[in-house]
Amino acid sequence: MFPLMTFAITSVFQPLPEKDNAYTEFTVPPQKPPRLTPQNLQPTPTANIDRTDDNVYQSVMELVKSVLQLKNDIYQLPPEGYVNVVKNVGLTLRKLIGSVDELLPSLPQSSRTEVMYPI
């Protein structure tokens, strides 16, 4: 019984192969690339547009606010409260889609892009 056991142990533990000299040994750490310093970054100017009667813009802002409200409240709410904040996001999204649908007929056909979803 011992010779069989000895054979099993010696067949599992193979001697380590000799050190392969085909790879490069690193003796010093590689040099870091030079740091690039940003050149006086200035925000690009935005157009000064009057958004007073822009329902799409106002709806987008309301949607952003409702998503931020969801993000801030979700950790403090019990699971039963999730429905109301998610519902609020859905309602503001529905309002945004409605405002886009109202505006779309007044835009020229060339400015429209139809998005097709695969079925």
Automatic annotation (TrEMBL):
Gene3D superfamilies: Nucleotidyltransferases domain 2, Single helix bin. Residues 37-49 have a biased composition (Polar residues). Pfam families: Focal_AT. GO terms for cellular component: focal adhesion. InterPro entries: Focal_adhe_kin_target_dom_sf, Focal_adhesion_kin_target_dom. Residues 46-115 form the Focal AT domain. SUPFAM superfamilies: FAT domain of focal adhesion kinase. This is Focal AT domain-containing protein.
